[in-house]
């Protein structure tokens, strides 16, 4: 069966729109984009459109490729100090002359809607309440909202990035799964993936996972997205694996819409956290 991320995300967004409409305050996201990376521009436009749909205000800062690290840090400082800005998002990747680590960790953890600051990552690792990165959060949400059990399952996450693989493994652990974290350099990857009740793949290698690597009736979550001959392609050979899996996410319309829905949820969480701290 196909796990329809688009449909699930629409349900979440409708509920968020009602929640935002009932608030007395206007929720505002500061969104920073440096340069003209075509993929980043598409992602930013999608995020801005989604914010508009649910009633979240966006203060956009579109900077040229020549912008300095200091320019970006000044915008973040101003946004950190502005009580009317509730979330800050820096679109990655940044140009090579800007240190992503310094920029991300200059964001106040209470306004870190991407969950990428050391503080939020550390809280997630420690099992404390944290802002979780939107894509891993979206994966867990997609499973839960489609009544797919996680507790006690053997989960294999292929991919070890700070943005997806590592936090996703931690979120699965928090939901009582037994987790193996593999990656593109793992020896005998097939033996490991074949044991998975839930297989989540986020490597960025088109068609890395084929039907012979998947256990019968496994749940397969394809997080990878790569442009191949102008078409968005996942890490899983969809048509093949569809025959073996009990559930599978398509690319596109799988995890992508859930990522944006989870980002919107994170903005709202940041707003509520700040209200609580101000009381």
Mean pLDDT: 96
Report the sheet with the most strands, covering strand number, pairing sense and barrel closure.
5 strands, parallel
Question: Nearest-angstrom radius of gyration?
Answer: 19 Å
CATH superfamily of the largest domain: NAD(P)-binding Rossmann-like Domain
Report what the structure shows.
It is a single chain. Helix 7 (165-174) links the parallel strand 4 and strand 5 (178-182). The chain has helices spanning 5-21, 38-54, 69-81, 100-104, 118-126, 134-145, 165-174, 189-193, 238-242, 255-278, and strands at 28-34, 57-63, 87-90, 154-158, 178-182, 198-201, 219-222, 226-228, 231-233, 247-248. 43% of the residues are buried. The protein has a five-stranded parallel sheet. The chain has 279 residues and is of the alpha/beta class. The protein folds into two domains: 23-108, Leucine Dehydrogenase, chain A, domain 1 (Rossmann fold); 134-257, Rossmann fold (3-Layer(aba) Sandwich).
Task: Summarize the topology.
Blueprint (H helix, E strand, L loop, with lengths): L4 H17 L6 E7 L3 H17 L2 E7 L5 H13 L5 E4 L9 H5 L13 H9 L7 H12 L8 E5 L6 H10 L3 E5 L6 H5 L4 E4 L17 E4 L3 E3 L2 E3 L4 H5 L4 E2 L6 H24 L1
Parallel strand pairs: 1-2, 1-3, 4-5, 4-6, 6-7, 7-10
Antiparallel strand pairs: 8-9
Helix pairs in contact: 1-10, 2-10, 6-7, 6-10
Short description:
With 279 residues, this protein is an alpha/beta fold.
Can you give keywords for this protein?
279 residues; alpha/beta; Rossmann fold; 2 domains; five-stranded parallel β-sheet; three-stranded parallel β-sheet; 10 strands; 16% strand; globular
């Amino acid at each position: 069966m196909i796990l329809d991320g688009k449909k699930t995300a629409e349900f979440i967004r409708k509920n968020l729109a009602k929640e935002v409409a009932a608030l007395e305050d206007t929720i505002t996201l500061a969104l920073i984009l440096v340069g003209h990376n075509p993929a980043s521009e598409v992602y930013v436009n999608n995020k801005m459109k989604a914010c508009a749909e649910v009633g979240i205000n966006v203060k956009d800062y579109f900077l040229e490729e020549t912008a300095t690290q200091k320019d970006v840090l000044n915008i973040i400082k101003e946004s950190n100090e502005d009580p009317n800005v509730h979330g800050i998002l820096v679109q990655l990747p940044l140009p090579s002359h800007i240190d992503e680590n310094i920029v991300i960790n200059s964001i106040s953890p209470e306004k870190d809607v991407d969950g990428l600051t050391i503080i939020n990552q550390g809280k997630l690792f420690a099992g404390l309440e944290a802002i979780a990165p939107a894509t891993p959060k979206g994966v867990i949400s997609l499973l839960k909202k489609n009544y797919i059990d996680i507790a006690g399952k053997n989960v294999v996450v292929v991919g070890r990035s700070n943005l997806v693989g590592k936090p996703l493994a931690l979120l699965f652990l928090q939901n009582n799964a037994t987790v193996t974290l593999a990656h593109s350099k793992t020896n005998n990857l097939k033996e490991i993936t074949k044991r998975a009740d839930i297989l989540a793949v986020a490597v960025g290698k088109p068609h890395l996972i084929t039907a012979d690597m998947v256990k019968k009736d496994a749940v397969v979550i394809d997080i990878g997205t790569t442009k191949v001959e102008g078409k968005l392609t996942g890490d899983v050979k969809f048509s093949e694996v569809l025959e073996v899996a009990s559930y599978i996410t398509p690319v596109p319309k799988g995890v992508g819409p859930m990522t944006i829905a989870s980002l919107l949820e994170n903005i709202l969480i940041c707003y509520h956290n700040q209200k609580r701290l101000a009381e």
